[in-house]
Amino acid sequence: MNDLNTIISTFSNEDQQRFTTYLEKKNKRNDTKNIQLFKYLSSGNSNSNELCFKLYGNQNKGAYHALRKRLYQSVIDFIANASLQDEKAIDMQIIKYILASRTCLQHKQYKAAYKILDKAEVLATEHHLFPLLNEIYHTKIQYAYANPSTDINQLILKFKSNQKNHQLEDQLNIVYAKIRQTLNNMTYKGDVVDFQTLLNNTLNEYNISINDSMSFKSLYQLVAITSFSAFATNDYLKIEPFLINTYKSILEHKDIEKQLFYHIQILYLIANTLFRNKKFNTSLQYLDLMHKYMHEKQKKHYNNFQLKYNLLLSLNLNFTNKQDEAIETLIPLVNTKHTDTETLLDIRLSLVMFYFQENDLKKASHLFSKFYHTDKWYTEKAGKEWVIKKHLIEILLHIELKNIDLVESRLLSFKRSHTKYLKGINQQRALTYLALVEDCYKNPEKITSGAFKNKVEKSFEWIDNKREDIFVMSFYAWLKSKMENKPLYSTTLDLIKSAKPI
Q1: pLDDT for position 260
Q2: What is the pLDDT of residue 397?
Q3: Contacts of 306 (CB under 8 A, 6+ apart)
């Protein structure tokens, strides 16, 4: 998918309508084919040869590529103009105030200039626009001599305080970038890193601390960094109070309406944390909020978040004994074309899990067969942990289907591919689990025996079930269902129920 197709795929239905109207107003000739091309690309038709023939009746590649180039520029202009009219409206207003005040100052209209700068300062302070505040204070200090009522010392204090806030924002941005890059290397390249130590050292290095003067973007980055930490350590309980309290402070933020994208992102991070902590009802409440804001501003960000929202919704439904609803939520999304490949893969693997838990092995196997890319490709798109989960589900699926030869080959492949990595991140228990699965497969008559149950009990260093990862518990549920000779789904729900906070 090239750049033009990628950008167009992010357009909501409302965006498509507005862009078509934009092109109609822009076109000076009736025979312009840009709207036709846009509609073809919006519908998912991206075959250049087919499109060229539909538009021109022949393979006029020169005209076709020139048309694509013009459409691409129109898309960029449309997005930029929409951004200026929407999120940057306050910024532009403040810049206008600053420019107008400087013109007044040059004409020695000092009183009028300072009134304009005062308006700019109020707006910039409300929206935590530190770079613009810097320009305002700079200008006020420069001409303080011409305005007798100005307290220059007070201005200098404001200027220095703003510089500190601006520096904090810049430092947090650097920390966010470093942590995000490290997490990406861990997730998609399999790097072994002591993430928590790295996070603490990085925050200390840049002397990051929370204060009321943080911009909305900085608060989002702080929430995101905290969530990265939970993802890397699988300790979501520790971060939950911080996320909830930070969100409460965000609700009082003047920039909340302006920063809708970050607001939705934060709600998703909180809902996901609550889900991982088995607080499903509260997670669903935050998902409802997320869905509400996804519809704001003519559903501007709806398309960006619809996959994440529906995936998390389905997972909450699945673990609250509403599996049919969970499955129905995901089925329409399985073959969706979207730029968020990682979430699409999560959706497909989650649906395989739902079918597997429901004991609909035929559907689970059919959907799993669609994973035809290499492990390297999946690691780059969805991460190392996703690939490991995929392989574990595949082994369990082949055991249930009694595909003996495939079970043996997949077991050997798993050990060869992942043993070194799992030991490197101190997750040997995945290998212990696999050994017990292999034991079940080779000696099914012993699974329900007291000796095997005792072996399982002694095989792990058990974590408090409230802290244990919900997906780890789901894998263990398969083992438990075999030992107790009970259905997998009810065993999973019972296990999760025992871990839910009271």
Answers
A1: 84
A2: 96
A3: 294
Mean per-residue pLDDT pooled into runs of 10, the chain (502 residues): 73 82 82 82 79 80 87 85 66 88 90 91 86 92 88 92 85 79 68 63 68 66 75 75 80 69 90 94 96 89 93 97 97 88 95 96 96 92 91 95 90 92 84 91 89 88 79 92 94 86 50
Unique residue bearing structure tokens 């105030």: 97
Q: What confidence score (pLDDT) does residue 232 get? A: 66
The pTM (predicted TM-score) of the whole model is 0.73
* Residues contacting 123, CB < 8 A, separation 6+: 90, 93, 94, 97, 129
All residues at 6 or more sequence positions from 122 whose CB lies less than 8 Å from its CB, including other chains: none
The answer to whether the CB of 98 falls within 8 A of the CB of 117 is: yes
- The shares of helix, strand and coil residues in the chain, as percent rounded to the nearest 5, are 75, 0, 25
> What is each CA distance from 497 to 272, 284, 318, 319, in whole angstroms?
18, 17, 13, 9
Cα angle 6-12-18, degrees, rounded to a multiple of 5: 105
Helices (H), 234-340: 236-251, 260-276, 280-294, 296-299, 302-318, 323-330
Strand spans (E) along 435-475: none
Query: How many beta carbons lie within 10 A of that of residue 381, not counting itself?
Result: 15
Residue 198 CA to chain centroid, in angstroms? 22
Residue found by looking up tokens 């691409």 in the block: 72
Pairs from 358-362 (Cβ < 8 Å, separation ≥ 24): 358/323, 358/327, 358/489, 359/487, 359/488, 359/489, 361/397, 361/400, 361/401
Q: Do residues 358 and 323 touch, judged by C-beta distance below 8 A?
A: yes
At residue 502, the pLDDT reads 45
| Residue located via tokens 């792990």 | 460
Closest CA to 96 of 77, 79, 119, 122: 119
Residue 382, classified by CB atoms within 10 Å of its CB into exposed (0-12), middle (13-18) or buried (19+), is buried
**Which tokens belong to 74?**
């129109």
First to last CA, the chain: 48
Letter for the amino acid at 352?
V
Q: Would you say the C-alpha torsion 408, 410, 415, 416 has a positive or negative sign?
A: positive
> Residue type for 419, please?
T
Res 36: pLDDT? 87
